[in-house]
Amino acid sequence: MNERMSERMKQRPFLALWSLAVVASVAAFVVHLGLRGRIVDLGYKLGRARAEQGRLREVKRVLSLEAASYETPQRVEMVARTLLGMTPPPPERVIPVRWVVKIQDEPSTEGAPPGEPGSAPSPPPGPAAPSGAAGSPVPGGSP
Question: Global pTM?
Answer without folding.
Answer: 0.42
